[in-house]
Amino acid sequence: MLKFLSRVRIEFNALDPRTAASMEFLAQCNARKAKESNPACQVVVKRRTDDHPPQITVTFVNGVEEMFDATATTAQDIRNMILEKGQMLETEQMFKEAGEKWPVVIPEEELSQSFPGTKYYLTNSRRI
């Protein structure tokens, strides 16, 4: 998960009962496997003393920053969103390295073309 990120900032008040997702996400970031995937990723923890809701801010390796409300989103959902966006970053990078334009635009007429080895199943047709 950390391999797609350059920075993680986790803010929470330790006495706030809404910190479960923040604490779980912090534990995931501190896991050996996560740290080994990107040792350069900064994990910053800000312990708050006010009533500010827990939040997690991540910065992707391409500089895009995203903030998550850790009271309304589970740690697993945050992790899944990061992995999904990270896979898009990897795909984009592969296309750019191959000299292809990004995003890939598939013309509408090509979407309806048949290809060898493709089977079509008609769901509403009847044989008599």
UniProtKB/TrEMBL annotation:
Organism of this sequence: Escallonia rubra
Keywords tagged on the record: Mitochondrion, Ribonucleoprotein, Ribosomal protein, Transit peptide
Pfam family, one: MRP_L53
Family the entry assigns: Belongs to the mitochondrion-specific ribosomal protein mL53 family.
Localization: Mitochondrion
A GO CC annotation given for this chain: mitochondrial large ribosomal subunit
UniProt keyword Ribosomal protein, yes or no: yes
Highest taxon in the source lineage: Eukaryota
Official protein name in the record: Large ribosomal subunit protein mL53
InterPro entries per UniProt: mtLSU_mL53, Ribosomal_mL53, Thioredoxin-like_sf
SUPFAM superfamilies according to UniProt: Thioredoxin-like (SSF52833)
